[in-house]
Amino acid sequence: MMKNRNNDGKISTKWVPIICISFFFIGMLFTNRMWEPQESESPLISSHQQNQELKLICEDCGTKKKIGSESDVMDEVQRTHDAIKSLDKSVSMLQMELAATRSSKELVHSDKYSGSTITQDGKPKKKVFVVIGINTAFSSRRRRDSVRDTWMPQGEKLQKMEKEKGIVIRFTIGHSATSNSILDRAIDTEEAQHHDFLRLEHIEGYHELSAKTKIYFSTAVAMWDADFYVKVDDDVHVNLGILASTLAHYRSKPRVYVGCMKSGPVLAKTNVKYHEPEFWKFGEEGNKYFRHATGQIYAISKDLATYISINQPILHKFANEDVSLGSWFIGLEVEHIDERSMCCETPPDCEWKAQAGAVCVASFDWSCSGICQSVEKMKSVHEKCGEGDDGVWGVVL
């Protein structure tokens, strides 16, 4: 190269074009070499960039999680609470759907009272006209005996009425809080003698009457396929024939609620009988309840009893049993039948009506929410206001 320079140390001009061309080709070669690897390695570069971005994001998330850890814990608690509520609702819905499915899968083999219905579990379910549940307590043995001695048939007559007339009567009672207690054993002994009890899966208690009513209807629906289901207290006098013929008038109606309809005051004050702890739900103080049948005796049709059975887990219980029952039908297409013959006063009221040919379905004293001193007076009421021993046998249903 030294030979190519002149005496001044500069490159001879004749080599300039050659050098320029050489650098041009070298540049082209270098350029191609640089671009080709970039294109072939672009996925690796892109993947590397993504990994770097994910690493930054994860580091950022970790930082935020540490900063908001308390908030995250509260959010998790809330999500767990919501999940539990959702599960509880799902369980309730499944219970309702299961009961409805069982009801819809019943196979009816006969329309006569001697026939039966086969439930899903294979047990027979008798077809009857009406099931009458007499609400009673452990301490009410004398009341039960007063009913047996007057308007409720006994022994073979009780079985005959069930078979021929489709009228089922049972004293309804649950169990004591103590398993196999002396109270339960006393009921077992009484049942062995009379065979007229319907034992309920229920713990007895005065403040548990609303729950007992739900269980009674659910149990009765499961055992008998009836047109009507009646609840009556054990200190009320009933004429079975008049009750049956009265209910027969409403047989063609799908959803009827029969009884003496009332709308009493909502008692907000504590330490008074029939106090309503949830008085605030009924508006301002001094308001009245919605219309409902008085609790001494009432009847509901098959569809309504089935509705109670299906929806039992979610039916609200108010302090008073008759109010609770009325509340369960609010919002439903139900016909309320105000049947005043189901709440006659004791003599002379029911006696005068009987003499006039208007025999009452039921009689009791409003002042006592039943017949005052019913053990002593039930026989007298039966003699003066009863339909006669042959009353129920002459009814055509």
Automatic annotation (TrEMBL):
Uppermost EC category: transferase
Compartments, record wording: Golgi apparatus membrane
Listed PANTHER family: BETA-1,3-GALACTOSYLTRANSFERASE 7, BETA-1,3-N-ACETYLGLUCOSAMINYLTRANSFERASE
Membrane-spanning parts: 12-30
Keywords per UniProt: Glycosyltransferase, Golgi apparatus, Manganese, Membrane, Signal-anchor, Transferase, Transmembrane, Transmembrane helix
Pathway: Protein modification; protein glycosylation
Organism: Saponaria officinalis (Common soapwort)
One Gene Ontology term of the molecular function aspect: beta-1,3-galactosyltransferase activity
Name of protein: Hexosyltransferase
Taxon lineage: Eukaryota, Viridiplantae, Streptophyta, Embryophyta, Tracheophyta
